[in-house]
Specification:
The longest helix has 40 residues. The chain is 71% helix and 0% strand. Helix 1 packs across helix 4, helix 14 runs parallel beside helix 18 and helix 20 runs antiparallel to helix 21. The protein has 27 helices and no strands. The chain has two domains: 479 residues, no CATH class; 155 residues, Serine Threonine Protein Phosphatase 5, Tetratricopeptide repeat (Alpha Horseshoe). It has 748 residues and is mainly α. This is O-antigen ligase-related domain-containing protein. It is found in: Membrane. Its main location: membrane.
Length: 748
Amino acid sequence: MADASSAENRGPARRLLGPLAVLVALPVLMSAWIPTLPRLDFDLDPRIPTAGVRVTLGAAGFGWLALWGTAAAWAGVAASVAAGGRLRWRSTLLVLAGVAAAAWHLPSSFDDAYHGLGWVWAASAGLAAAHLGRHAAAWRWLLALPVGLLVPLLCQALSYRLVTHPATVAAYEAATAAGTWSGPGSDDPHGAAARLYERRLRINDATGPFGFANVLGTVAAALALAALATLPRPRGAHAWAGVAAAAAGVALVGLTRSAGAAAALAAGACLLAAAWATAGRLPPRVRRPALAVLAVGAVAGVVAVVIARGVAGVPTPEVGVDAERTLLFRSQYWSGAAQLWAGGAAWLGLGAGGFGEAYARVKSELAPESVTSTHNVLIDYAVMLGLGGLAWAALLPGWLGRAAWSQPPRGGVEEEKPGPIERPEAYAVAALAAVLFASEAWIRLPELAGADLLWRAAAAAGFVGLVLAARRAGRRGAALATLAAATAALVHGQLDMGFHQPPAAPLLWLLVGLAAGAAGRPPAAGARRVAPEARVPLVPLVPIAVAAVAAVGVVAVAQARLVAHASALAEAAALVRAQRPDLALPRLERAGVAVGRDRVTTRWRGRLLLEAAAAAAGAGDPAAAAALYDRIATTLGPADPTLGGEARLREADARLAAGAGAPAAAALRGRAVAFLETAAAASPTRPERRLRLGEARLAAGDRAGAAADFAEALRLDALLYLDPDTQMRAAERADLEERLRRLTAASR
C-alpha cells in the first residue's frame, strides 16, 4: 500500500491540505503558548499600579483564535473529503451533539460562553485532525508543529524556576515586610486566604502558559511521546532530534512535579513499547485488539483506581495530611458529580458555569475546597453538557481504541527515506515560528527583559529545527507515537483539568484526533481516477457545510458576547483607575448583562458600592450610606446572597445612625439573616458561611440560633483536617469556642 502522498488527492483539494493543516494547527499552538486570563482587566484590582499593563490574552483574544481555529477545522474536514478521504459520519455526529449542548448553555454565564467556545473549537480541531490525519500532506504538519512546542515550553519552565519564581517570592516578602502588599489575603494577613496564597506562591512547580502544573504535565507527556514518531526512520539527525525532543518533554514533566503526568507518560511509553515490540511478531487479528484493550484499559484503570480509593475511605484526623489525598479528593469530586448527574444533569447538563455552584451544595464535608471541574474529562463533559457531553465522552476513548485497532503492521505502509530539507519548507517553518513567537512577545513585551527575548530567540530556533525534523517521520512512526500521546493525554485526563481548560483543550483534542487519523488507511493509489478538476464529492460536502455553519455560528455568537463583555470591563477598569466608580458601575453592569451572568462583575459592583457607602458614612451622611446598602441588597443580593446579607446588616446600622427606630433596624437584620441562610444553604459545608450566619442571628437577637450556627461552624472546621491551612487559626477557634460557651451558659 502506497503512502498517501502518491495519490491521495486530486484537483484543488490536494493543494489545500497542507495549508489548511497549518491553519488548523497554528491557532492551537498560539493558544498553548500565549497565556490567557479570561477576565483580563479584573483578575487583579485595577487600582494596583501594574494592573493596567496587559501581558496576556483575554477571553476576547482567545475567542478570536477559537473563531479562526473552528473555521479552519471544518474547512479541513471538507478538504479531506474533497481530496478522496472518507467522511467520519459517527465522529461528526458525536461532535455536533456536544456542540449543540454547548450552544444551549452559552447564554447562561460568562464561564459557559468562554468554556463553551473553547470546547467547540477543541472538538472541531480533533475532528479535523481525525480527517486530515489520513493525508500525508496534512498529518506531517499536524504532528510536527505541536511537537516543536516542546522547546519553548521547556525554556519557559526553566526561566520560571530559575528567575521568575525566586524574584516573585522576594518581591512578596519585601512587600509584606513593608506592609505594602495589596494582593490576595492583604485584608487579613494571618487569615486562611493569606496562608493559602503564600503556600501556593512558594510552590515552584512549572505551570507554563496554562497556570496549572498538572495541565502543563499532560501536554508535556503527550508531546514527548509524539516526538518519538521519527524513530522508525533510518537512524540519523531526524531520529536523534525526536529523541532529544522526547527528553525535553520528560524534563518538562519533571519540572511540573506532577505525579499523574509522570504516570501518564509511563503508560504511554509502555503502550508504545508494546506496539513496537509486537509489530511483525503477532498476527494483526491478535495484535490490534490487544493494543486497543491496553490503550482503553489504561484509561479505565485510572478510573478504577480512583473509585477504589474512594471506597477505601478517608483517613483519621490522627493521620491527616500524611495520608494519600490526591486520589481521595478526585473520588469526592466524582461522587458529587454523580449525585448531580443523577439529580437532573443527565439530559442537558449544568454548564461550565453552573457546575461549581451546584457542586458546592453536594460537596463532601471533608473536602477542603470547592471546585469548578471534576478533574476528569469524561465526567466533566457528562455533567456539564448532559447528553451532548456523553457523546464527547464516548468519542474520545472511541478515537483512542480506533487508533490502537488500526495500527499499521510493519511493512503495511511503504516507508520512504527522509527527503532533504528544501528552502521553501524551511522558510515556511521559519515564518510560522516568527508569527508564533512575535505574537507572544508583542503581547508580553511590557514585562520582558533582554534575557527573556534572548531565550525566546533560542527557543524559536529550536522550534524550527524540531518541526523540520518531525516532518521527516513516516506514517507508521506517526501512528505509533500519536497513539502513545493520545493514551497519555487521556490517562492523565482522568485526573486533571487539561481538557477542561480552554487554552489546553484544543491541543489535547488535536492529538487524540490525529492518533485516530494517522492510524487509518490512507486513500488508495487507484481510487477514483478522474481528472484533477472533476467530480468533487458534493453529497458529503453538503452536510459538512451545514455542520460548519452551525459550529462556527456557535463560536461567533459566544465571541460576540465575550467581546462586548471585554469592552465593558476595559472601560470600567479605566474608570476605576481614574477614581470614577460612579461611572464604572454602569459599565460593570453592562459587562454582566453581555454574558448573562458573571460573578466577578457582581462582586466588583458590590465592592465599589460598599466603598462608596463606607465613604458616605465616614463623611457623616448615614442616610446616603443606607441608601447605597439598600441598593446593593436589592440589585445584587439575589445573585450573591452573602453580599446581600452583609449589605442589610450595614444598612441596619446606618438607619439607626440616621435616626430610624429599633424595629426598622431589627427588620433589616431579619432580612440579612434570610440572605445569609440562602448563602449557607448554597454551600452547606463552608464553616465561614455558618459563622457569618451565626453573627447575623446574634445581631438580630436570636441567641439560640447563633449558638447552633457557631457549633456547626466549629464542627465543619474540624472536618477540614485534610488541609490544615483551610482551618481557623488556634486563636480564632478558641475565641469562637468561648463565644459559644457564653451563649450556651446564658441560655440555661
